[in-house]
Amino acid sequence: MLKAVEIDAWIAGRQSSLEDARATVTEIIGRVRTEGDAALIDLAKKHCVLTDIAVSDDEREDAYEQVDARIIESLIEAHARIERFHELQKPRDLWLQEMEPGIVLGVKTTPLNRVGLYIPGGRAAYPSSALMCAVPARVAGVKEICACSPPPIKPLTLVALDIAGVTEIYNAGGAQAVAAMALGTESIRPVQKIVGPGNVYVTLAKMMLREKVEIDFPAGPSEIGIIADETADPRIVAADILAQSEHDPNAACILITTDKSLPAKVGREVEAMTKIAPRKEIIVQALKNSGYMVVSTMEEAILASDAVAPEHLSIQVADPLTVVTRVKNAGAIFVGRYSAVACGDYAVGTNHVLPTAGYAKTYSGLDVNHFCKTASVEIIDRDGLETIGDIVETIADAEGLHAHAESVRVRREFGRK
To answer: Is the distance from CB of 389 to CB of 356 less than 8 angstroms?
Structure first.
């Protein structure tokens, strides 16, 4: 069930789906801009009759009654692990360093005030994504966290959002939810930044609205790249492929291996597992986007993987740490046969909101820093100004910005009195 692929063609296929959605997304954004809440209500008709866009506190409380206590306990435990890891990322509010006598420099970090989270819904509940998006925002110190998810929002998602301390929850999905958070409607006030994964429509809407609102990065349909050699277990590799394939028909997987016999072995395992998989129809569609590539050396495998820049990279080789140190482009790296991507999806503590479609070449996965902004701090006394004054005046005059130079001269003269 796995076919041989060319890297360039595989990459092109991942990126072309975004352009296919452009006309639809453009229309949806236009409707939300002009119609506001009415557009959200009308676009939700295919899924449900939407009467209230905002989720009430009573609905939050009722959701707990509809979720098994064991699941709630697991969500609480996962939340604690995610929070613990993200606390390690929290920057200092202010740091200062004396660079030389009279010159102290530093950085002040301030959390954003209001952010929007997009939580997928559609085919399944994703309470894990709710935790992954909300926890770093809370750790960063964001005061207003609003979340949108396709209606009717599943109780599991509501519980996770509540556990994570989200302040506002709205019944809105797809590109229209992104537009609502970016542009504002009668019910949803605009946010400073939108984060979270979604389908191609959600991803494209985020990219198109960047002139109105900051985003984390393009985070579309899930994908995995696997670097494997002859030591890889075919069943484990196949299990990772199916785990990503069941997300979405547009999900994709690519196996890059130095073992010519491995693709056939993995293919047989994939075929056997797919037959009994509960989400078989989705997996079959996703496998059409997937394939393998056989290379001669591990160096070639690393180069091929870096060209793909997968959302998730699983390394199943005899000497995995050597590959980890040499690989450059991946959203998250899973090392060794016991490091299932699913552990990162749920409970190990790292974040599963990651760049897809090759964007891991330039973007990092979601973390606390996505919810902060920084300002440099300069503290210069009289002696410090004398130290750099000639340099500043010379360069300013050379640029023809004489008032810049004068602003330093008058201070130096004042200091000499």
So the answer is: no
Binned at pLDDT 50, 70 and 90, residue 15 comes out as: low
Instruction: Tell me whether residue 311 is one of the annotated catalytic residues.
Output: yes
Range(s) of the chain covered by CATH 3.40.50.1980: 3-16+221-364, 36-216
Q: What is the DSSP secondary structure assignment for residue 360, as one 8-state letter?
A: G
Mean pLDDT of 144-154: 95
Question: Which member of 269, 311, 352, 393 is catalytic?
Answer: 311
CATH of domain 3-16+221-364: 3.40.50.1980
- Answer whether 72's CB lies under 8 Å from 64's CB: yes
Which residue's structure tokens are 């959701």?
A: 63
How does residue 51 score in pLDDT terms, banded at 50, 70 and 90? confident
Q: What CATH number does domain 36-216 carry, 3.30.565.10, 3.40.50.1980, 3.90.480.10, 1.20.1090.10? A: 3.40.50.1980
Q: What's the pLDDT tens digit per position in 81-122?
A: 999 999 999 999 999 999 999 999 999 999 999 999 999 987
Which residues make beta-bridge pairs with 104?
98, 379
375/353 Cα distance (integer angstroms): 26
Share of the chain above pLDDT 90, in %: 86
The pLDDT confidence band at residue 55, using thresholds 50, 70 and 90, is very high
170 in Cβ contact with 180 (< 8 Å): yes
The answer to whether residue 404 is catalytic is: no
Q: Which of 79, 86, 247, 312 is catalytic?
A: 312
